C-alpha cells in the first residue's frame, strides 16, 4: 500500500541523494539548513504552522496531513564564501587573508505524500541538513619553517555533510493535525591538513588524512498544528538528539573517540491568513548545539585535555536561536510570490575562533524571495533566491607560542538559488 502509485520515484530519489552525499554542503543557522524545500526557502524557512507541499514535513511533520497526493523534486545551488584574516600569529599565516575554495554546491531534495484509506497520509522525504565545508589552499606560511599550509600541513579543510531519510505518518482531525516521523540520518566527514595538532591528540593516527567516513543514526521528529480559527494556525515541532555511530577514522579529533551526534531542536510558529490571498508567518527555533560535546565543548582546553578524549576540546558552539518571518501572496490563480527574513544568533565565541577557521558558521541575517508558477492543473514550478549577509567574529590564536597580538577574524556570507517541480495526483 505504501507509495503504491509512484514507487520508482522514491527509490530513484534515495539512490541519487545518497550517492551525492559526500559533495553536499550547506551552512546557515550554525550548520542547519535555512529551509529544505524550494518553497520553504522562499519564506526564509518559515512554515511550522503552514502546509505548503510534500516537503513541508521536513519543517513540521504535521504539515503534510492536509497536503494530499503530491510529489516534489528540488535542487538548490549554494555558494558560501568563507575566509579568515590574521594578525601577528604564531602558527597560522601572519597578517594575511585566506579564502576557502570549493564555493559552489548542488543540494537536491525529494518528497512524496501518499493519502491512506483511513484519512491519514504517509510521507517520504529525503533532504540535506547542511554541513560544514572548508578547503584552504597550500599557501606559504613563514611560521612553518620548511612546511606550507595554514596549519603547516599542506591543503587543509573539513567536509561534514548530513542527509535525512524521513518517513512521516500524519493525520488531520477537525482543527487538529499531528505527525510523527522516524528518521534515518547519514553523515559523512573528512579532515585534512591538521597533523600539526597530533601532539594534542589522544589518538594521533586517527585525526586527519582526508578520507571520507560515514556515520549512521536514528532520531524521531514530531509535530502538531491547530487551527485556532479560519484565520490563525499554531504549530509546534521538535526533533530528538540523533545518537550517531562514531567516526572511527577521526577518533583522535572528535570528543569521546570520534563521537559526533546531531543536536535536538524545537520550533513553534504561527500562520495568519490575513486575506484570501495573503498569509503572514512567524517562527521561533532553538538548536541545542551545546548538548553535542564535539560541537559544544570549548576549544580553550586544548593542551589541557587531548583531542578525542572524553570531555576533550570541541568547536565551542553555543545554542542557536532563530527568529523567522515570511509572507506569501497569491497574485493570481497561476502565480504566487514569497518573501522572508531570518535572524539566527551566532554560535561561535571569540575565544574559539582558531578552531572555527574550519567551521566559520557565523552568519546571522538571511533574506529570501521566491514564488510558484502553476503550469497546469497538476504541475507547478517553484523558485527562490537567498542572500545571507556577511558577518565576522574575531578572537585569538591559541597555541603555546601565540601572543595577545595573534588575532583571527572569521568572515562568511552566502548566496543560493533553488528550483523545484511539484505534481498533484
Automatic annotation (TrEMBL):
GO terms for molecular function: long-chain fatty acid transporting porin activity. It is found in: Cell outer membrane. Coiled coil: none annotated. It is a multi-pass membrane protein. Residues 1-27 form the signal peptide. One of its GO terms (cellular component) is cell outer membrane. Pfam families: Toluene_X (PF03349). Its main location: membrane. The keyword Cytoplasm does not apply. Keywords: Cell outer membrane, Membrane, Signal, Transmembrane, Transmembrane beta strand. Transmembrane segments: none annotated. Belongs to the OmpP1/FadL family. PANTHER family: OUTER MEMBRANE PROTEIN NMB0088-RELATED (PTHR35093). This is Long-chain fatty acid transport protein.
Amino acid at each position: 500500500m505504501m507509495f503504491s502509485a509512484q514507487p520508482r520515484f522514491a527509490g530513484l530519489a534515495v539512490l541519487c541523494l545518497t550517492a551525492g552525499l559526500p559533495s553536499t554542503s550547506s551552512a546557515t543557522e550554525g550548520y542547519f539548513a535555512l529551509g529544505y524545500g524550494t518553497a520553504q526557502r522562499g519564506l526564509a524557512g518559515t512554515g511550522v504552522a503552514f502546509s505548503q507541499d510534500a516537503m513541508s514535513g521536513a519543517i513540521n511533520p504535521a504539515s503534510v496531513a492536509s497536503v494530499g497526493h503530491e510529489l516534489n523534486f528540488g535542487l538548490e545551488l549554494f555558494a558560501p564564501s568563507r575566509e579568515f584574516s590574521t594578525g601577528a600569529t604564531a602558527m597560522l599565516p601572519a597578517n594575511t587573508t585566506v579564502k576557502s575554495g570549493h564555493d559552489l554546491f548542488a543540494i537536491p531534495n525529494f518528497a512524496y505524500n501518499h493519502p491512506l484509506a483511513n484519512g491519514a497520509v504517509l510521507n517520504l522525504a529525503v533532504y540535506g541538513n547542511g554541513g560544514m565545508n572548508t578547503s584552504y589552499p597550500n599557501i606559504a606560511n613563514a611560521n612553518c619553517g620548511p612546511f606550507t599550509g595554514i596549519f603547516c600541513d599542506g591543503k587543509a579543510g573539513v567536509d561534514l555533510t548530513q542527509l535525512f531519510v524521513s518517513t512521516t505518518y500524519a493525520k488531520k482531525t477537525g482543527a487538529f493535525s499531528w505527525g510523527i516521523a522516524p528518521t534515518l540520518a547519514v553523515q559523512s566527514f573528512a579532515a585534512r591538513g591538521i597533523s600539526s595538532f597530533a601532539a594534542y591528540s589522544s589518538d594521533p593516527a586517527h585525526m586527519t588524512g582526508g578520507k571520507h567516513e560515514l556515520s549512521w543514526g536514528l532520531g524521531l521528529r514530531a509535530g502538531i498544528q491547530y487551527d485556532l480559527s479560519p484565520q490563525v494556525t499554531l504549530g509546534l515541532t521538535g526533533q530528538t538528539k540523533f545518537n550517531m555511530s562514531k567516526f572511527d577514522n577521526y577518533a583522535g579529533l572528535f570528543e569521546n573517540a570520534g563521537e559526533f551526534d546531531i543536536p535536538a531542536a524545537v520550533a513553534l510558529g504561527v500562520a495568519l491568513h490575513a486575506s484570501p490571498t495573503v498569509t503572514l508567518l512567524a517562527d521561533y527555533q532553538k538548536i541545542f548545539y551545546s548538548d553535542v560535546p564535539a560541537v559544544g565543548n570549548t576549544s580553550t582546553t586544548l593542551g589541557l585535555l587531548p583531542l578525542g578524549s572524553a570531555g576533550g576540546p570541541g568547536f565551542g558552539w553555543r545554542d542557536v536561536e532563530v527568529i523567522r518571518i515570511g509572507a506569501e501572496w497569491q497574485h493570481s490563480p497561476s502565480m504566487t510570490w514569497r518573501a522572508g527574513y531570518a535572524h539566527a544568533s551566532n554560535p561561535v565565541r571569540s575565544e574559539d575562533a582558531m578552531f572555527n577557521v574550519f567551521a566559520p558558521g557565523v552568519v546571522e541575517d538571511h533574506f529570501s524571495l521566491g514564488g510558484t508558477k502553476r503550469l497546469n492543473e497538476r504541475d507547478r514550478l517553484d523558485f527562490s533566491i537567498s542572500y545571507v549577509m556577511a558577518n565576522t567574529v574575531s578572537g585569538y590564536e591559541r597555541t603555546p607560542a601565540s601572543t595577545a597580538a595573534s588575532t583571527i577574524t572569521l568572515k562568511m556570507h552566502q548566496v543560493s538559488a533553488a528550483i523545484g517541480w511539484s505534481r498533484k495526483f
